Amino acid sequence: MKRCLFCHETLVEEVSWNDCFGLRKRSLFCDTCYKGLEEISGERCDGCGRKHSLFPEQYRQNMTCLDCIKWEGNALYSQVLQRNISLYVYNETLKAIIAKMKYRGDAELAKGFQQKLQQVYTTFFHGYAVVPIPLSEERHYERGFNQAELLAQQLNVPYENWLTRQRHENKQSKKTRSERLKINQHTFLLHSEVPPLTGTHCVLIDDVYTTGATIRAAALILKQAGALSVSSITIGR
Question: Which residues form the Phosphoribosyltransferase domain (predicted)?
Fold first, then answer.
C-alpha cells in the first residue's frame, strides 16, 4: 500500500488506459497535497520565472520584473544568470513540504518532485552540467544531507559538486529581504580539481529562489571559471 510522501495518507488513484500502456507517471503526493501545489504556468518573468499575475504590471518592463532589471544593472552580476525556472509558487503547501524535508530530515520528499524536475531539465537544459548549490560544512553536518543535491539526484543524470560554500551564515528563512539581497561574492569557491569550464553550459539546482542572491553568487563563480552560461532550476519561487 503506497502512501503520500508528505501527509502519509493512502494513495488512491483511478486506473486509466495510460496506466495499462505505462504512459502515466503517478504522483507520489496524494490528490489533496498535490492540489495544494500551485504550478507556475502562463506569463512569467523571463529572468527569475516569477508569475506575472503575482505582482502588479508597474513592477515589470515587458516580460522582465524590476528585480531582474536591477540585478542586470549591477556591474558585477550583469549577465551572470541566464534564467531561472521554478516549478511551483512558494505557497503554504510547498513551504510546509520543504520545511519537512530540510528541517525534519525527511529526505524522501525530494522524490516527489522528480517528474517535474526531469521535465524541465529535458525541455530547457538538456546536456547542461548539473551543479547543486552546496551547504556549508556546519549546515551539512547539522542537516545530514544537502537538499539541493537530493533534488539534483532526481534528474537521473550525472551532477557536479564543483562548488564549495566557505561561509556559515544564518538560515535564509531567518533573514529579512534586505539581508538576503546582500551578496558576498566570496560565499562560494570553486574546487581546485575542477577542470576549465570554457564553453560549458551549467544549470544550478536549489530548493527555493527568493531574491536570487544565492543563485547569482554561485553563478558568478562558474562564469569566472569560464562557463558559457549559467541558469537555475528551483522547486519554489
Answer: 143-234
- Which helix (H) or strand (E) segment holds residue 60: the answer is strand 60-61
Q: Tell if the pTM clears 0.70, that is, is over it.
A: yes
Per-residue CA distances from 229 to 33, 43, 150, 204, 226 (Å): 35, 23, 23, 11, 9
For the chain, the domains span 79-236
- Report which of 43, 4, 57, 67 is spatially closest to residue 215, judged by C-alpha positions: 67
Residue 21 pLDDT > 90, yes or no? Answer: no
Percentage of residues in the chain with pLDDT exceeding 70? 86
The CATH number of the structural domain formed by 79-236 is 3.40.50
- Helix or strand run (H / E) with residue 102: helix 92-103
Rounded (to 5) percent helix, strand, coil in the chain: 35, 15, 45
Residues 148, 154: contact at Cβ < 8 Å?
no
